[in-house]
Amino acid sequence: MIDFINFYLFPALAIGSVYALGAVGISMIFGILRFAHFAHGDLMTLGAYGVLAAAAVLPFNSVLLLPFGIVLAIVAALLVDKIFYQPLRQLPTIYTVISSFGVALIFRSLVQLVWGSQNQVYGSGGVRPPLIFFDAIRVSALHVQAIVATAVIALCLHFFLSRTKTGRSMRAVSDDPELAQVAGLDTEKVVRWTWIIGAALAAVAGLFAGMDTSAHPNLGWNLLLPMFAAAILGGIGKPMGAMAGGFIIGLAEELSSYPWIGDQALISPSYKTAVAFVIMIVLLIVRPQGLFKGRLL
Amino acid sequence: MTELSGLFFYLVSVLIAGGIYALLCLALNIQWGMGGLFNAGIVGFFAIGAYTSAILTTPETAKHLGGFELPIFAGLIGAAIIAGVTGWAVARICVRLKSDYLAMASIGIAEILRLVIVNESWLTNGSLGISGIPRPFGEYTAGRPADLVFLAYVWLIVLIVYLVATRLYNSPWGRSLRAIRDNEASAAAAGKNVERFRTQTFVIGCAFMGVAGALSAHYFRFLSPSATDPLLVTFLVWVMLMAGGSGNNRGAIVGALGIWALWSVTEIFTNRLPPEWATRSSFIRMLLVGLLLQYVLQKFRAGILPEKSPPLHFEDEAERPAPEK
């Protein structure tokens, strides 16, 4: 039981928070801009490398250097939206999907060009001792940080979306863009905030994912599929749903390799990604609007 | 003299790979150019075809499933069938939803297939790969002349697929498909079964992608998971079709050859750079291809050879007076 908590539950929640933070952005962009953002994973990579670059100069803990990654991701997202996505906005959204597919490649080759394609670790790279609770529960400090950070972000995001004017307009545009525009909401401002929040959360997710293993140029791309699954699971255009979806996908992936029956892992850990894919496929067949009644575009 | 023949056979190798890309491009043109379906997992269907044909045609070995030693043409047909069936399964689930979902599912299937190829070594010999894949007419030729034979073989298949694709495009089936692509609601109102047409399109395209994968396996005679580099193939094919002209079969071939020539020629230059720059320059090439796609999407959407719908012919045209200008 203790093994289950230490080796499966906490890692599952940690990877779940990475998915949750990434999926929020995907869900919001899909809800407001109406397209599946294929470059979101590589935006995470960019954020992770932004912190890495800052850590090379400044002698602080990587988590404290997070603002550098966030700024890099936000600037990249706003630039890409202005240069590449905005000119295509009048066309069917599938063109923007293709464009974002290209942006994914652009981000990745930039990362490879600037930082090289080898794995890079944060800080000294040594194994840090885990935190111990009640003499039995051992959790890595990083996992605790990731889970706590995600919980705090979820709370802030909830208040932002339900209490502030900008947050409310974002929900309005997501529900009905034409009506929102007729009602006089500043659509461009909403779009800008969507990118800012999406990119900032992507950078946080990217950093935690990179610190958990190591930073490499395919870091974000490899997480894209489970994040899409999480966004669909939570319902497109439902940021809180996407958060929940991220944790569910993370739990499903990790717990699928727990030896539930006998001593063998139920599903070989090398097929973890397949679990997310299967969930996504089942959802698309049975309930494409997701668990929390999201939009079906 | 040797330099000249070296150049000649370099050109042959570029044209063989170009032919395989032309096939992928024609296949994608059926899916995207005619049907408006976004396939982000081209490399997945390519890999299915490659492995199916490799398994069907190689001699028996203890390392992976096989020993069927079927003729290569049977391998190609097998590749088309398996890739088509996989495409059918994906399409069945996704065609009724917005095209973005098909994109997500197709990228997912490519990812899962990559996992299967790496992990299921009884089937594919895992990361060690499959070797000894025969070439067509391999028993009669060897060395460089064999490349010429293979070049002819590849382009014969490109020609066949081109003729099929053109026939499809001009047929009533293709016309309905374009109607669905351009205005789904009115096509549905006219009684066209949108989902059925889309599924058929996706399956046909995937089958041809499988054939292209099979040809590449027979060309290299060796197949490993690295041959299914997840992004590069998918991405290059998209750029090729967009630049060549989506909706135009000839444009697909022109785009494939043009972009492939650019890609290969820049490789010659970058290989002469000092080693620390040679690796970096491959990223610069990727970056430039990414930017090229953005440029094409914004300013050059119709491509080099834009789509041209065939003229309409009415049955009673002869009896009708010519329209006055």
From TrEMBL, chain A:
The chain crosses the membrane at residues 7-33, 53-80, 92-116, 136-161, 193-211, 223-252, 273-292. Its main location: membrane. Pfam families: BPD_transp_2. It is a multi-pass membrane protein. It is found in: Cell membrane. The keyword Transmembrane applies. Belongs to the binding-protein-dependent transport system permease family. LivHM subfamily. This is Branched-chain amino acid ABC transporter permease.
UniProtKB/TrEMBL annotation, chain B:
It is a multi-pass membrane protein. The keyword Transmembrane applies. The chain crosses the membrane at residues 6-30, 37-58, 70-89, 101-118, 148-169, 202-220, 226-244. It is found in: Cell membrane. Keywords: Cell membrane, Membrane, Transmembrane, Transmembrane helix. InterPro entries: ABC_transp_permease, LivM-like. Its main location: membrane. This is Branched-chain amino acid ABC transporter permease. The lineage of its organism: Bacteria, Pseudomonadati, Pseudomonadota, Alphaproteobacteria, Hyphomicrobiales.
